[in-house]
Amino acid sequence: MNSFAILGKRLASSAMVLKSVKPAFASQPIRHFSQTQKALDQPTNLFSFTEEEQMFRDVVARYATEKVLPKVSEMDEKEFMYPEIIQGLFDNGLMGVEVDSEYGGAGGSFVSAITVVEELAKIDPSVSAMCDIHNTLVNRTVSDYAPKELKEKYLTRLATDTVGSFCLTEAGSGSDAFALATRAEDRGDHYVLNGSKMWISNSAEAGIFVVFANVDPSKGYKGITCFMVEREMGVEIAKKELKLGIRASSTCVLNFDNVKVPKENVIGEVGKGYKYAIDVLNEGRIGIAAQMVGLAQGVFNVTMPYLFQRKQFGQPIGHFQGMQFQYAQIATEIECARLLTYNTARMREQGLDFVKEAAMAKLYACQVAERAASKCVEWMGGIGFTREFPAEKFLRDSKIGSIYEGTSNIQLQTIAKALVKQYSQ
User: GO molecular-function annotation terms (predicted)?
Assistant: First the structure.
């Protein structure tokens, strides 16, 4: 008798025994848990996406694979983002994900924006960085705080054809974000901006700049005000930084030399710029977390097949237990980072306090991205160390995560402050 016949006989025998037993609780028919009303009322999992969110995921995955992927290596070598790639982002509605349709945007959710960032980062973190900063910092500042007149004038351009840049950091103002030296002098019907910014992403391609400057230094950070500035007003794009990673994403020094900005170009209230910056940067950290999750998944995706093609000692190296333990660990960490990120994104959509969770998501996702990329280079051996394979680029790109939009130490400080407040009362 073969094994299947033996198994069938045993199952039949067990069934007869079970039929003869009448448990005391069996007076009511047993229903599967998923059929109960309680189960039906339970919240869905974090990867339950709306039709709109899934549509964005599909569109981005297709665009990134078909249009971005063939250009990734060239753009990295030339440290330049091709205009047709940027135009493709606009054409697919990816530069105005959350912008209301009345301003030419897609009117999507915050999770949709995060989905876009993650999917792009699986292919090229540089393109993802441009899209993330444009959506979560620039568009968000204008959408949330600018008067309707400014939205009508600039938000439509930002959603359809003009790259935006978020200008906060200065030489003496990094982690201490509000030690700004850039000044805005009130001249009656306009302000005059003088100063410089550095480490400004998207600046080489941008036509519109969200600029933070102090109108009254005697008030400290309470003098910081947010302005909408056009390149044609006199913004000088100075030194372009030569970077370790995300090379196709431009990072430049900006100079403001007696730049005249109309008073109607003030975003929100005078002196409230510090508040606006804090709010959008907290949201922006979720975007960076999504970028790093995408990066980690991207390098994992391109590396894993190699482990089952490369043979040593008579078998694929991916079959060795020592390798299996490593990639199982990394896969688990990527999933944890993704769960943290999407949970925080949902919290933000629900109007909950998400500051601590955003810091946690960014901190952990950046750590995982570095570990995943580093391990992938190791797993591939010599070829992983060459530019022939994308793992080394993903490793270079991963390092920025622990630096921009708040260093890892700043995230730890934010988390610690929240915990002190929670447990010391």
Answer: flavin adenine dinucleotide binding; short-chain 2-methyl fatty acyl-CoA dehydrogenase activity
How does DSSP assign 79-129, residue by residue?
A: T---HHHHHHHHHTTTTSSSS-GGGTS----HHHHHHHHHHHHHH-HHHHH
Q: Is 269 annotated in the active site?
A: no
Residue 42: the pLDDT is 65
Give the C-alpha distances (Å, rounded to integers) separating 51 from 98, 108, 118, 408.
15, 11, 17, 35
Helix/strand/coil for 195: strand
Structure-token pair, residue 94? 């990816």
Say what the pTM is: 0.89
Nearest CA to 261 out of 187, 362, 337, 331 is that of 187
pLDDT tens column, 299-356: 999 999 999 999 999 999 999 999 999 999 999 999 999 999 999 999 999 999 999 9
d(CA 107, CA 388): 40
Q: What does the DSSP 8-state code read for residue 1?
A: -
Residues 288 and 360: their CA atoms lie apart, in Å, by: 12
Query: What single-letter amino acid sits at 299?
Result: V
pLDDT digit string (tens) for 362-371?
Answer: 999 999 999 9
User: Out of 79, 170, 205, 405, which one is annotated catalytic?
Assistant: 405
Domains, the chain, in order of start with CATH, read 51-163 (1.10.540.10), 166-270 (2.40.110.10), 274-424 (1.20.140.10)
Instruction: Please say if the pLDDT value at position 414 is more than 80.
Output: yes
Of 211, 205, 184, 287, nearest to 252 by C-alpha is 205
Cβ contact 109:98 at 8 Å: yes
